[in-house]
């Protein structure tokens, strides 16, 4: 078994990093960060509707960055990528990520999130076993997951790493399954893994089907702002670059076989998030024809199985690895609104990639 329970000192930080899902929202923030630091990065991404090479424009053609368009369920393609690139670290972010889509079509979530992760684990194990001893000692597989695996909180309490798994949506159930597989490959086969579970991210390059970018773009056009139920559900929002910094720490310095919760201590009710965005937009891009954007808020049928509250206790990550988030919600949300206003060239082409009507209402 691998060295469970103690930190392996990393003499030379990982230099060759394969990032699955690197063309997505969080993956692209990770790839941009690592390439800027001078690491060698291979982005491995199928480019589904959610994948976007424009999110990697800053680094795509730099010598430190390579890209392979391939499916994580394709074991042969992943094997070829491992054998050609020879990473000392795999960061696995590729997933189907949108809860509403998982309600309408859970099959793709099982295929990608469960079978895809299984495929990567099998190939990573084969690759790791064939490495020579120093390389084998350096190699790590970092699985990136969500706090939604823990289910829902009431008014009190926080998710800790030892909170029991109680996923409630097809998305969170598929992520929970993948977490369990990763854990099992560590305990049974000794594959050197680390895991992390993060709360809701927000920031630039967020696919516009998600609450925050959807609200910004609808508010810009004077369209209704759909709020599920009464808007009282609470999410714990973390700026995406703070998550990317946490992932780098966990991947390179986290204890093998351990999982780390990541969250910014920024709990907000959905209705308050939407109102905050309205206020920023009224100030930054006032529009006399639209008027005060709060008038656009429309309460709609609740999401089936809608988790009431998520909130993270990130003490372990802070104490063990010294992580501190650098963005508070007020500055982060203003920066995010301004980024969308300045980057229509990024989001305009995406409008054709998703249904701008309500989805995820189970029959
Ligand atoms: P995203 O939907 O923006 O990006 C997912 C990426 O994975 C896309 O580039 C897509 O093309 C790629 N992909 C999907 N299926 C693939 C497949 N079969 N093979 C190869 N590539 C494939 O997702 P995100 O928000 O960046 O989330 C990244 C990871 O972080 C996911 O594992 C998600 O569960 C987790 N996570 C997300 C959040 C959040 O708030 N967004 C919070 C916690 C954890
Ligand atoms: O139009 C909307 N109106 C609304 O009220 C949408 C799209 C969402 N909501 C609500 C549902 C949630 O309570 O806003 C909250 C946030 O919704 P999403 O943006 O869909 O995110 P969520 O379901 O919380 O999941 C996100 O965070 C955890 C990511 O999509 C997941 O991949 C991640 O694991």
From TrEMBL:
**First-level EC class:** lyase
Q: Name one GO molecular function term.
A: dTDP-glucose 4,6-dehydratase activity
**The enzyme's E.C. designation:** 4.2.1.46
> What is catalyzed by this enzyme?
dTDP-alpha-D-glucose = dTDP-4-dehydro-6-deoxy-alpha-D-glucose + H2O
User: Keywords on this record?
Assistant: Lyase, NAD
Coiled-coil zones = none
Record's Gene3D superfamilies?
A: NAD(P)-binding Rossmann-like Domain, UDP-galactose 4-epimerase, domain 1
Name the coenzymes or cofactors required.
NAD(+)
Q: Which InterPro entries match?
A: dTDP_Gluc_deHydtase, NAD(P)-bd_dom, NAD(P)-bd_dom_sf
Q: Does the keyword NAD apply?
A: yes
> In terms of domain of life, where is this protein from?
Bacteria
Span-the-membrane segments of this chain are none
User: Locate the NAD(P)-binding domain: which residues?
Assistant: 18-335
**Pfam families named in the record:** GDP_Man_Dehyd (PF16363)
Q: Which family does it belong to?
A: Belongs to the NAD(P)-dependent epimerase/dehydratase family. dTDP-glucose dehydratase subfamily.
NCBIfam families this protein is in? dTDP_gluc_dehyt
Protein name from the UniProt record: dTDP-glucose 4,6-dehydratase
Q: Which organism is it from?
A: Ancylobacter koreensis
């Amino acid at each position: 078994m691998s060295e469970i329970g103690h930190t392996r000192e990393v003499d030379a930080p990982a230099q060759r990093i394969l990032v699955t899902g690197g063309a997505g929202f969080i993956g692209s923030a990770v790839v941009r960060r690592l390439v800027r630091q001078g690491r060698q990065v291979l982005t491995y991404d199928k480019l589904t509707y959610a994948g976007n090479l424009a999110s990697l424009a800053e680094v795509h053609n730099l010598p430190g960055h390579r890209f392979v368009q391939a499916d994580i369920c394709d074991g042969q393609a992943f094997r070829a990528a491992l054998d050609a690139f020879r990473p000392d670290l795999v960061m696995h972010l590729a997933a189907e990520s949108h809860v509403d889509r998982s309600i309408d079509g859970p099959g793709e979530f099982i295929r990608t999130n469960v079978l895809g992760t299984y495929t990567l684990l099998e190939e990573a194990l084969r690759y790791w076993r064939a490495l020579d001893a120093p390389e084998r000692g350096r190699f790590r597989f970092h699985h990136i997951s969500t706090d939604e695996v823990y289910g829902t909180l009431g008014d009190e309490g926080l998710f800790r790493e030892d909170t029991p798994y109680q996923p409630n949506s097809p998305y969170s159930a598929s992520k929970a399954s993948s977490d369990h597989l990763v854990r099992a490959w560590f305990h049974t086969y000794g594959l050197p893994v680390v895991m992390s579970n993060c709360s809701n991210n927000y920031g630039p390059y967020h696919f516009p089907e998600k609450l925050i970018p959807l609200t910004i773009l609808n508010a810009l056009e004077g369209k209704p702002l759909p709020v599920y139920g009464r808007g009282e559900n609470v999410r714990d929002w973390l700026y995406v670059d703070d998550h990317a910094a946490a992932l780098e720490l966990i991947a390179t310095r986290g204890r093998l076989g351990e999982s780390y919760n990541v969250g910014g201590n920024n709990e907000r009710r959905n209705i308050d998030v939407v109102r905050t965005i309205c206020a920023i937009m009224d100030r930054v891009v006032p529009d006399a024809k639209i008027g005060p954007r709060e008038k656009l808020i429309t309460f709609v049928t609740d999401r089936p199985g809608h988790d009431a509250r998520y909130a993270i206790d990130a003490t372990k990550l802070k104490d063990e690895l010294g992580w501190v988030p650098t963005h508070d919600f007020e500055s982060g949300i203003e920066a995010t609104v301004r980024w969308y206003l300045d980057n229509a060239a990024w989001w305009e082409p995406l409008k054709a990639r998703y249904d701008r009507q309500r989805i995820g209402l189970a029959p």
